[in-house]
Design brief:
Layout (H helix, E strand, L loop, with lengths): L24 E2 L5 E2 L9 E4 L4 H7 L14 E6 L7 H13 L2 E5 L19 E7 L5
Parallel strand pairs: 3-4
Antiparallel strand pairs: 1-2, 4-6, 5-6
């Protein structure tokens, strides 16, 4: 159990408020919690220790309206947390469906085929740029 007795002199536990990336939600005390993504934000660098996977696999990620004013997006896909190439491709498809052109090293490579596991010890940086906006 952390912290250990020796760590207690150096560490302090604090509460961290979690907010949704897309859309509003009700908090623990029925208060309205604002999302991380708000109108006016045009550039997103998403780095939330593997939660990028759940965010990009959500239905909201495939909806152009969810991205509000975002025109540029960058993130690191953590293959150390999710090795299935098909899951990565679903996330990329969601970005494309939302109106982004997506770039990453190795586009068109063999590992983009279905049912392939990522064999390397490194992750990928994903870049996306909005190519259409209808709202």
């Amino acid at each position: 159990k952390l912290p250990s007795e020796s760590q207690k002199a150096f560490l302090e536990r604090i509460s961290v408020k979690c907010v949704p990336f897309f859309g509003f939600r009700k908090g623990e005390e029925n208060e309205i919690v604002k999302p991380a993504l708000v109108p006016g934000v045009t550039f997103v660098k998403l780095d939330c220790e593997g939660s990028e996977i759940d965010i990009l696999l959500s239905h909201a990620a495939s909806q152009e309206s969810s991205w509000l004013d975002v025109t540029h997006f960058v993130m690191e896909w953590s293959f150390t947390k999710e090795r299935r190439g098909s899951v990565f491709q679903t996330a990329v498809s969601n970005l494309r469906e939302a109106g982004f052109e997506v770039f990453y090293q190795g586009m068109g490579s063999w590992w983009e085929a279905a049912n392939v596991m990522w064999p390397y010890p490194n992750d990928l940086i994903v870049f996306a740029k909005k190519i259409k906006q209808t709202h």
